[in-house]
Design brief:
2 strands, two-stranded parallel ribbon, alpha+beta
């Protein structure tokens, strides 16, 4: 499967997936972290998004309203070690290993007992 969008589009899709998981797990509040400052700023803005991925952003903003609270946080790549480790695991993951609920793969844990 090849991805036809850009990095920003991919980041938005990942956030959509995370928001959907939060809803399915019954979370009442969420914190959305991203290493894309542009995505964080667009999501946090009350203005309508007219960019090429604007419809996706607007849909995501509507989904976020279903939570009691939601905050957005920019996390620079240098501070996002866990996401970096997960991204590097991608070629070795089986399809059912893409979401972890109770335990994390030892390859991304600083403390393997977590």
């Amino acid at each position: 499967m090849s991805f036809q969008g850009g990095i920003t589009h991919a980041e938005i899709l990942v956030i959509c997936f995370g928001v959907q998981l939060g809803k399915e797990f019954g979370c009442s509040s969420i914190i959305v972290e991203s290493n894309s400052l542009n995505v964080v700023q667009v999501l946090a803005s009350s203005n309508k998004c007219y960019l090429t991925y604007g419809a996706l952003i607007e849909d995501l903003k509507e989904r976020i309203k279903l939570f009691g609270s939601c905050s957005f946080k920019y996390v620079g790549r240098n501070l996002n070690d866990i996401a970096y480790r997960i991204a590097n695991l991608y070629p070795t993951l089986s399809p059912w290993e893409g979401v972890w609920v109770d335990t994390l793969p030892s390859a991304i844990c600083i403390d393997p007992t977590l």
